[in-house]
Amino acid sequence: MKPRVFLGLVVSAGLLVTACSSISQIGTSVAVATGQISPGQAAAINQSAQAVQQSFQDFTPEQEYYIGRSVAAVILTKYRPYDDPAATRYINLLGQSLAMASDRPETFRGYHFLILDSDDINALSAPGGFVFVTRGLLRCAKSEDQVAAILCHEITHVVLKHGLQAIKKSRITAALTNAALTGVEVAGPSDVAQLTATFSDSINDITSTMINSGYSREFEVQADRGAVDLMKRVGYDPWALVDVLEVMKLRLKPGGNDFAKTHPDPAFRIEVVEKEIGSAQRSTTVNPERQARYEAAMAGI
Amino acid sequence: MSGLKRWVLGGWLLVALTGLAAADQKNMMSVTVEQAAVRATPSFLGKIVASLAYGDRVAVVAEKQDWVEVALPQGGDGWLHSSALTTKVVVLQSGQNVSQSASSSEVALAGKGFNEQVETQYQDESHLDYTWVNRMEKIVFSPDVLVKFLAEGGITGDQGGGN
Fold first, then answer.
1. Which of A82, A131, A204, B32 is the most buried (most CB within 10 A)?
2. Which of A107, A179, A196, A178 is nearest to B111 (CA)?
């Protein structure tokens, strides 16, 4: 009986305290093995225990949106917007069309795209769907398909919540614990001050990753693979991503404060992309309407 | 272990589970976007039959690939993309739904946290300019316009794909 009392404690720890699904999983698997609970019950317990673990997935879509807005505002301190209504309209028509076909077409307030007035070769996407691309990067493209390739990479970062994952775990715990404690009352001034401090730190985590250190190589590989899949799904030529990367390979300057610093080498990315494209054939025809509207919209780029 | 003890332990586990999953009613989901257009068919081009707000709870009627058919509070039903729904309960800031917020999983989705109030304070402290963020947010094209854009460019789906 004593081991079972212990087991009960282990399971209850997994259930009722905030923490550890691995402990409860061990507990539940033992409980299933000894016939105390059914596999179905075990699954439910494990799911519940996992649900109380705090991770980036626990930010609500609304919180993700507010984080994204402020990350966007910080990006706009580094770069100024390129105020060309025709180009902005085009990039949004294209970007929103692509996002609609993504694995996550619905975010709290949708996807929005803005061109940045800079020669840097850079693109940044803030949580929730605020996507930025520089004129320098758009100049690496020669067709709509190639611009689509750039946007699909950024959309995939949003879909996979890579930005939120740059937030340090300690902040997530602080934010969500505070949220839990104040969840049933109106937040007082000290709660707001505390949350704002955590919010500010979270924004810094994301922007410093995005602007300075870059995401992990793994996240970039995921974004490139996701871009290829999304392009195939919508009907753009996935080889266009290779074409843009070939141009970037020539234009990125070592030590540059842009993709040169934050993204894997284009040659490596091309390998990843070609593998993902597989046997799909390169498109040999150019749709004249598509090329004409691309050239008209990007004339000033 | 005697049958009685086993029963007691099993009962205890069930009570614990019930406590955690209090509002996790079967087949209920919450809306995760500010305004969700509910459509007559499982497609972004389907006719809009209703609109749901962030946090609204709906009963799932059926699922088809990435689309979920839900029963509408006012009667009838319609389709939402699965990315506009979560199985978690969204607890709103105003204190709505709070009575349901028994479990930790729901509290993790509490509306308190990073919200408009926090952003306002952060704006005051950081002196960031949100003008262009607000302007950017207003650029919204309807699915009809987007589909027309793709069609006009001769993009018909899975052209270069071959997957």
1. A131
2. A179
Is A236 an interface residue toward B (CB < 8 Å)? yes
Contact B130 A69 (CB under 8 A): yes
8 Å CB contact of A199 and B118:
yes
Q: Are residues A137 and A263 in the same domain?
A: yes
Same domain assignment for residues A145 and A13: no
| 3-state SS, residue B59 | strand
- Number of Cβ pairs < 8 A linking chain A and chain B: 251
Nearest CA in chain B to A51: B105
Report the chain A residue with the minimal C-alpha distance to residue B85: A106
Average pLDDT over residues B33-45: 96
Contacts of B89 (CB under 8 A, 6+ apart): B23, B24, B30, B57, B97, B100, B101, B105, B106, B109
Q: What is the pLDDT of residue A59?
A: 86
Please name the member of A61, A182, A281 whose beta carbon is closest to the beta carbon of B33. A61
Are A273 and A139 in the same domain? yes
pLDDT for A236: 97
Establish how many alpha carbons lie within 13 A of residue A24's alpha carbon, considering only the half-sphere containing its beta carbon.
27
What is the domain class of B3-110 according to CATH?
A: mainly beta
pLDDT tens-digit map of A202-234: 999 999 999 999 999 999 999 999 999 999 999
Range with the poorest average pLDDT among A9-18, A237-246, B50-59, B77-86: A9-18
CA dist., res. A204 & res. A31, Å (int)? 44
* pLDDT digits 0-9 by tens, A25-50: 444 454 555 555 555 555 544 444 44
**Cα(A173)–Cα(A188) distance, rounded to whole angstroms?**
19
A26: region left, alpha or beta (phi > 0 left; psi from -120 to 50 alpha): alpha
Specify whether the CB–CB gap between A87 and A301 falls below 8 A: yes
Same-domain check for residues A93 and A27: no
A16, A22, A172, B80 from B90: Cα distances, Å: 20, 26, 18, 17
B129 strand-pairing partners = none
The answer to whether residues A13 and A126 belong to one domain is: no
> Model confidence over B113-161: pLDDT tens digits?
788 888 999 999 999 999 999 999 999 999 999 999 999 999 987 543 3
